[in-house]
């Protein structure tokens, strides 16, 4: 399997390209701000043809370039229905300060072809089987994508931290439930490719991430969940 990624734009959001091998069809995950040039470079380098764009959630730093990417390649965008409204009105998912900073006359619309994700679905795209897990808490419509031994975690789980929950649609108790049900059951060797920052593994996060470690210990002892602290993402 071929997986290539690069951090896009001022938010440094990881955009990923996934294909069975070079020279084949691929899917694009989370084309954020100014992602088009970097994406085109990856596609040329590996001779790939996109067949779909997959969005882990609707925050603007993950979907900024979805319309030009889908339009240039005539491919659909996939998003959970709980976050679909953010495609055309991303301000609904942001703080007032961020809205004032970003939206100086910018207008957003949906791609021409939008398809909705459901929990537990298996997408058969580009010769891949991609499992969708609904993982709310960062946003109501956050999801993760899994292919064998790899999870694209969006802003659910990072190396050493988790997604922030203080924006509209976020909820701390909900993200802890998502971490417990979506991440903890995975094998330690599962590679985690997050929406921001370096890759990690489930085993490393289970052992060192204070949130995942706390949940793991809570499940074992019946104690309290970890308290809210520094988190990442837009």
TrEMBL record:
Top-rank taxon: Bacteria
- What are the Metallo-beta-lactamase domain coordinates in residue numbering? 12-196
Alphabetical list of InterPro entries matching this protein:
MBL_Glyoxalase_II, Metallo-B-lactamas, RibonucZ/Hydroxyglut_hydro
**UniProt source species:** Microtetraspora glauca
Q: Which cofactor does it need?
A: Zn(2+)
SUPFAM superfamilies per the record? Metallo-hydrolase/oxidoreductase
Q: What is this protein called?
A: MBL fold metallo-hydrolase
Q: Which UniProt keywords are listed?
A: Hydrolase, Metal-binding, Zinc
One Pfam family from the UniProt entry?
Lactamase_B
Q: Does the keyword Metal-binding apply?
A: yes
């Amino acid at each position: 399997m071929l997986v290539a990624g690069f951090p896009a734009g001022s938010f440094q959001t990881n955009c990923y390209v996934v294909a069975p091998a070079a020279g084949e069809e691929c899917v694009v995950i989370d084309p954020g701000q100014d992602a088009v040039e970097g994406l085109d470079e990856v596609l040329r380098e590996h001779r790939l043809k996109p067949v779909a764009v997959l969005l882990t959630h609707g925050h603007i730093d993950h979907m900024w370039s979805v319309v030009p990417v889908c339009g240039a390649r005539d491919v659909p965008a996939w998003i959970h229905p709980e976050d679909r409204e953010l495609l055309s009105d991303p301000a609904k998912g942001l703080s007032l300060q961020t809205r004032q900073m970003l939206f100086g006359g910018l207008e957003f619309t949906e791609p021409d072809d939008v398809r909705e994700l459901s929990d537990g679905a298996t997408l058969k795209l580009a010769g891949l089987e991609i499992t969708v897990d609904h993982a709310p808490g960062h946003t109501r419509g956050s999801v993760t994508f899994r292919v064998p031994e790899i999870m694209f975690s969006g802003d659910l789980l990072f190396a050493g931290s988790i997604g922030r929950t203080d924006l509209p649609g976020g909820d701390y108790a909900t993200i802890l439930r998502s971490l417990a049900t979506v991440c903890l059951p995975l094998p330690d060797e599962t590679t985690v490719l997050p929406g921001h920052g370096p890759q990690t593994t489930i085993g490393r996060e289970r052992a060192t991430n204070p949130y995942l470690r706390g949940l793991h210990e809570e499940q074992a002892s019946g104690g309290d969940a970890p308290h809210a602290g520094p988190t990442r993402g837009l």
